[in-house]
Amino acid sequence: MAEMYYDDDADLSIIQGRSVAVLGYGSQGHAHALSLRDSGVDVRVGLHEGSKSRQAAEEAGLRVLTPFEACEEADVIMILVPDPVQRKVYAEAVEPNLAEGDAIFFGHGLNIRYGLIKPPAGVDVCMVAPKGPGHLVRRQFTEGRGVPCLIAVEQDATGTATELALSYAKGIGGTRAGVIKTTFTEETETDLFGEQAVLCGGAEALIKAGFETLTEAGYQPEVAYFECLHELKLIVDLMYEGGLEKMNWSVSETAEWGGYVTGPRIVDDRTKATMKQVLTEIQDGSFANNWIAEYDAGLPNYKKYVEAEEQHPITATGKKLRSMMSWIREG
Ligand code: NAD
Ligand code: MG
Ligand code: MG
Ligand code: MG
Ligand code: MG
Where does substrate bind (predicted)? Predict the structure, then answer.
């Protein structure tokens, strides 16, 4: 069973006694910077001169510096820029400003797990990874609650890295919900596997295959869209609230039958063997190497996939149908 920590296990005064730089002000960055500030932590945001996020951070009352300046001042540096650019920001802004006893923090372990960033001995290397999107992390915090977080320590130079990571997690509300101890390796490999095989990769492929099967059989795309994409949210919401058992309790017995009999014919032993192959490529580093090489080359294949996605009939069908649903338009 996982080791869990709550508010009483974490000492907020540790992070309150440090100078924190949050690099990046996107989904995670804004949540961390604002909630740390509201927890009485001395925080500055690091963004490059032309960044579109600068204005938002300044309007929220935060001090905004360049990443280099922010790291010069700080002794705890949280790197929340996109994973493929972390290497560059680290080399230009973080590394030149690291001193013995400083700490670098991540919200996801990819750059450490695959050796893209190699911190020097003498600094703590920690992770605080909320298990939710940044906007939920911030909203829960302002409502007096929190989103569960994973914490990990890759390098404990000071001997107090775990206490520091717990203190940071408390500063963004994580220990209100509960914090689970993991490793950079476990977090990185499971996070990549989840998004590649199940959440984004797997779910999207399942939706498209279902939509294509119905439309190729002559059914109307609008009807296929409702059945294969739109209604998925209703099903996932039930799973989110109460697991597979609540979903099966709520749907008809006919639908439930699908989970026992038809589903395993769709996602069968071959699919599972492919999942194991995908996991192997994540574990041996080839997935990350390929993705970083694609990113560094200017995303040539990615751009082709995005274009193909725009041409897929499910895109135009969805646009039309969503415009009929006022509650989605307003969101
Ligand atoms: P994001 O894309 O939402 O935001 C990135 C921020 O970095 C933006 O403010 C952008 O202006 C800034 N930025 C981009 N290039 C920069 C540069 N060269 N120098 C300085 N700033 C730069 O990113 P995100 O989704 O918040 O992801 C940040 C980290 O958090 C990643 O490691 C990601 O894996 C992790 N994470 C994200 C989520 C999530 O909910 N999105 C959840 C868990 C972990
Ligand atoms: Mg993002
Ligand atoms: Mg994830
Ligand atoms: Mg991820
Ligand atoms: Mg139906």
Answer: 252
Binding-site members for NADP(+) are 25-28, 51, 53, 134
Cβ–ligand 1 distance for 150 under 6 Å, the answer no
- Range 176-184 average pLDDT: 98
User: Atom 44 (ligand 1): residue with closest C-alpha?
Assistant: 107
> From the CB of 26, is ligand 1 less than 6 Å away?
yes
pTM for this entry: 0.94
Which residues have C-beta within 8 Å of that of residue 291, sequence separation ≥ 6? Answer: 84
Query: Directed axis angle between helix 286-296 and helix 269-283, to 10°?
Result: 70
Instruction: Provide ipTM, 2 decimals.
Output: 0.94
Let me know if domain 6-182 sits in CATH 3.30.70.1340: no
Per domain, the residue ranges of the chain are: 6-182, 199-267+299-328
pLDDT digits (tens, 9 = 90+) for 128-142: 999 999 999 999 999
